[in-house]
Amino acid sequence: MESSEELESSLLTQPWASVCFGESSFLAKVCFRDTGYILLISDLSSVWYESADTEAVGQRSKELNKRLTVHVSSFLNHLCSLMCPLLAGQPGAAAAFSCHRSASGLRLHVKSELSGLPFYWDFHCCPAPLDMVSRHLVRPLIQMNLVLQCQVQELISLLLQKDAEIEDYRDSGATLSRDRLRTEPFREEVFQQNFVAETLPRICSAGEGQAFASALQQLYTAVTQQELKQARKRHCSEDDVDTAPPAETTKHPHSPAASQEDETTSSSEKTSPASSPAQKSRLPAAKAKPKKAKGLFS
Questions:
Q1: If we measure between CA atoms, which residue out of 55, 31, 39 comes closest to residue 108?
Q2: What PANTHER family does the record point to (predicted)?
Q3: Would residue 11 count as lying in a domain?
């Protein structure tokens, strides 16, 4: 059975999507499993979340849908069919959404039909903890910024190489068959100035609904998948260090002095050009501890 930590890890690789609930715009992501669901939602001023297991879903469904006696998995599948297409920008099953903010959190109300009967659901979202906000929003956005900056630098370098290639063709006497294909040499400083003066205001005026375009959603997923991969490597390295047998660890700098026999052996190893089989058998005992793997952005 999938634990709440595994459910949140699955949520991490889900991209944020722009969505409207009632008259309010949000960024949201959700993950449904047979064991429950977890929802993360933000209006860029606050971030809320709810994590519910099958017991909580069953209890709430009894309170809100007294006439429905279907299995909890049916409730979860129906909620998934309502929420996921909406976050994907696709028309889903007919449903009405409304939300209510309060000092204690955010309540998202859903009204639909299930098995021909009215179906109601309330997501009870409380403020998300800081580490959750950092993991799902702040850190991925910083990493995406670094990735995009590297991409921009590579594209600038490619443009300069193309300009040099075109100039070489011109010096060789080559001409364009159509004047409309002619371009000016790329000037990075001029490009940056024009971008800030013209393009940037247009992007900022688009509003919060354009926060995660499809290309950025793909980049977010790629970044978070890499984060999970690096986290698993670090976890495996820590487990290997913790479970390593004592004979495989290095000696403590304050361990007791070596015996005369050990000192004689050590001296002979330094002066001998090739180690004997007996000496080679002692080498694994001096192996250093495996180092922790480092992530791309750690």
A1: 39
A2: NON-HOMOLOGOUS END-JOINING FACTOR 1
A3: yes
Asked whether residue 85 falls in the same domain as residue 150, the answer is no
Within this chain, do residues 56 and 152 fall inside the same structural domain, yes or no?
no
In what side-by-side order are the strands of the sheet with 117-127? 17-21, 24-33, 36-42, 47-53, 117-127, 105-114, 96-102
Question: CA nearest 57: which of 47, 65, 49?
Answer: 65
Which residues make beta-bridge pairs with 96? Answer: 111
Closest C-alpha among 154, 150, 148 to residue 218? 148
pLDDT in tens for each of the 298 residues of the chain? 566 788 888 999 999 999 988 788 899 999 999 889 999 999 989 999 999 999 999 999 999 999 888 899 999 999 999 999 888 888 666 789 999 999 889 999 999 998 889 999 999 999 999 999 999 999 999 999 999 999 999 999 999 999 999 999 999 999 888 989 899 999 999 999 999 999 888 887 766 545 677 788 899 999 999 988 888 888 777 766 666 555 444 444 444 444 444 444 444 444 444 444 444 444 444 444 444 444 433 3
Neighbours of 156 (CB within 10 A): 14
Instruction: Residue 57: name the closest of 41, 43, 40, 37 by CA.
Output: 37
Residues facing 127 on adjacent strands: 48
Number of CB atoms found within 10 A of residue 180's CB: 5
Angle 116-121-127 from CA coordinates, rounded to 5°: 165
Contact 292, 231 (CB under 8 A): no
Total domain count for the chain?
2
For 208, other C-beta atoms within 10 Å of its C-beta total 12
